[in-house]
Amino acid sequence: MTPSTKPPKIRAILFDFMGTCLNWHASLLPHLPPLPSHPSYPPSLASKIQSDFLLQWRQSYFNTNTLRISHNLPVENIDLTHLSTLETLLLTPAYSSWSPSFTPPIKDSLIQAWHHQIPWPDVLPTLKSLSEEENYELFVHANGSTRLQLDLVKAAGLKGVFEMLFSSQLVGVYKPERESYEWVLRVLGLQPEECVMVAAHTSDLKGARQVGMRTVYVRRWTDDIHDNQEVIRRENDAYLENMRDLEKVIREL
């Protein structure tokens, strides 16, 4: 590749937040009510039932966003989406015996738990190095409300790491809609080739590629659990098992 055709230097890194940077699963698990007593529920099975419940709740949130996009519905407050998907999930036969344990205070605690998540262990050192040593501009570009993102930044110890938080509430459209990425690029005054999207969700990266951004997939066991990882590996500029090599990968893009 000649110097004239070499891609522009990366200036901005856009991060998805929940799942990619934050371990939502571990953050919500302590807020679930105990399972009803049952002789067939050994501790290991009870833990699996609770884990599966959270994974299904998370997927139903994504499904609801997709449905809203397909019906051209406006962005909804994420707390309302989380509550409606929780209540719908509790109506399914699999959780009918557990449903009475989800009292209004328990439901409220679970909704608020989405606002107070812990980061994955590799996140804070990586982001600080990218921002302070490499001098990249870091941004959150994620679905949800601005209030949610402000709370998450504070809870995760990430204050001062990001230049700005781009929520779907602020942008006015959900990822992975093309308009979401184009809106952010206009605000930043950057070309797509100067930006890289980092996410643990293949749909986010497909949207970024459509507008010409470079993409890095970070594998998290909590997300994209039904997607073909080999396909994802081939589709993106880089595929990582964690963020520890993110700095090196972006430097080489």
Automatic annotation (TrEMBL):
GO molecular function: phosphatase activity
Keyword S-adenosyl-L-methionine belongs to the record: no
Domain of life: Eukaryota
Keywords linked to the UniProt accession: Hydrolase
Keyword Hydrolase: yes
Cross-referenced Pfam families: Hydrolase (PF00702)
Protein name: Haloacid dehalogenase, type II
Native species: Botrytis paeoniae
